[in-house]
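Q: What does the assembly look like in three dimensions?
Context provided by user:
Components: two
Sequences:
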Amino acid sequence: MTAVFLGIPTAPPGVGHLRGDRSFPDAARDSLRDGQLRANLGHATATIRGKRAAVVGEVPDWAELREAGRAIKAATMARLDEHLIALEEQVTARGGTVHWARDATEANAIVTRLVQATGADEVVKVKSMATQEIGLNEALEAAGIAAHETDLAELIVQLGEDTPSHILVPAIHKNRAEIREIFLRTMPGVDPELPDDPRRLAMAARAHLRERFLRARVAISGANFAVAETGTLAVVESEGNGRMCLTLPQTLITVMGIEKVVPTWRDLEVYLQLLPRSSTGERMNPYTSLWAGVTPGDGPQDFHLVLVDNGRTAVLADEVGREALHCIRCSACLNVCPVYERAGGHAYGSVYPGPIGAVLSPQLTGVEDNASLPYASSLCGACYDVCPVAIDIPSILVHLRAEHVEAQTRTTPEALAFRALSTAMSHPRLWRLAQRAAGLGRFLARGRPTLPATLPPPASRWTRSRDLPTPPAETFTQAWAREHGG
Amino acid sequence: MNAREEILGRIRTALGPDRPAPAEVRRDYRLADGRPPGDPALLDLLIDRLEDYKASVVRCAPPDVAVTVAGALRGALGEHSPAGVVVAPGVPSGWRPDGAVEDDGRPAVALAEHAATLTGVSVAIAETGTLVLDGSPLSGRRALSLLPDCLVCVVEAAQVVGSVPEGLARLDPLAPLTMISGPSATSDIELQRVEGVHGPRTLVVVLVG
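A: Here is the predicted structure of the complete assembly.
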């Protein structure tokens, strides 16, 4: 059963950040040449991997929590419509207003209209994957509204006119010297003698943002969880910028994907254990904010919740792929992925990089719009092992590859090659001949361990992202015949 | 069709007429720590976890809270004006340092000018080093524990539970809740942890009992 067959729309092109300009292999080739990027990434992912392993090891019931986390998400998806209706009722009963958005365009229009209704021409933002996905900052800018990112890493990315490269630490690809340079260039009134010490850089950001927090009338956030039973929203963070945005402005607009709902308050006791340990390798993140609607005298007095589909129902329609909707955006899979560690987040072209991005982005956009991503994996399975809600990412990758292959109307060179291989392997004489022919490759290789990096077309389509080993001097059957006289 | 009906319709189409039965959720993870609230071992665990997150912890007997708070403020701020300390309205008089100001709902800009805040908490979770403020008079409104640069929280031994499930079970899901584990921190620059970005840069916990 596919989304196309059911006619459920995927995320529309031309808006938001789910599609890259180039295919993964093309984009990855650039990042593989960037030694600084690879060094930053290697250091960062290894550090977080170590921290995560240590704090997960402290929890004696991790396996039971992980299974509960998986089961709650599966149960949520099986009754997603009912939970969303309950959430809407609860939020409304507590003084909030709920809006529904079919796609990125509609979500951006709703938020823009809400901001305009307040008369404000600027907003402060809590780091949020959903608003990045729909390209909200660009939409607000087009309407003359300045959107200020307040998470330190998002601020670095925004001031550097760059794009995030990691779900959790979006500026992971920048080192302290690069960050200092960005601050000196873009922050008004910054001390020209600012050193590149992380503490001093963080303090410069604090001074830069404090005034904005105090004057902002409208804030925009995402949500990590929304409890259907009570209407409680949850945002987890570290810096306090989230608390500033969620607490100080008069109006709060929260944008969340419809898959973020959980049925009951008790479900948070599972995810508030799984998420921090999996993402930052902490026992608990420094700040978690929870609120239900509006509280008189405390925090925003005007609260809007925007529920966004943007391709999620198309993902839900795929019985194998729907598990990708269970993702709680911890980014543990990025930090263990050998492909992500070398290619970096930008190569994936979507706001969702790494293994989860390789299954989520193609499903949200339709596989043909992100056809290279399901192949951006070695299928080693490390992502499945660390996923706190046990999403079987490798199986979904294989499933999406099959969907892509089936969608091809013309025979690809790869299909032709495998058809020829299949014929050869089913005929012993042909197979021996082919093996002997492969020995010719040794001339091409001229003693090097792999054949030339680029073979002529059409074989170039295979070798541009793979090394082709030099055929051995002797095949197994020849060696057997020589030693055993077969 | 409006967006709401259309999205709900898409979900129903996606799940099909034979929608899967909701998976059974087994809660066979640890629901309780096994030690009663306030158990001495839990207090030690809480202190260990808070200090690991660069909070400072001082212990005292119930009659000595005010003097301990005053001492902690001197330690964190040096010589300071007593009026620089703002307290949540429900904080008992026996906890308040002399000259502290009670929060009267003043605007955020005025609140930000105070050097320190004193509040109680709703519950503390030992295993994760977490304090929870619930917007009640004892905890104060959310901006109170956010804007001044130093936050002092008084935790009573009986408020300390072991596990996250025990902590959440004691909370009202409809209250504006703030869970605090150590002071504000970032690791965004080369993953080097820096305490104090936007929230209070100093967190002092006075553990009573």
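Follow-up: Chain A has a mean pLDDT of 93.
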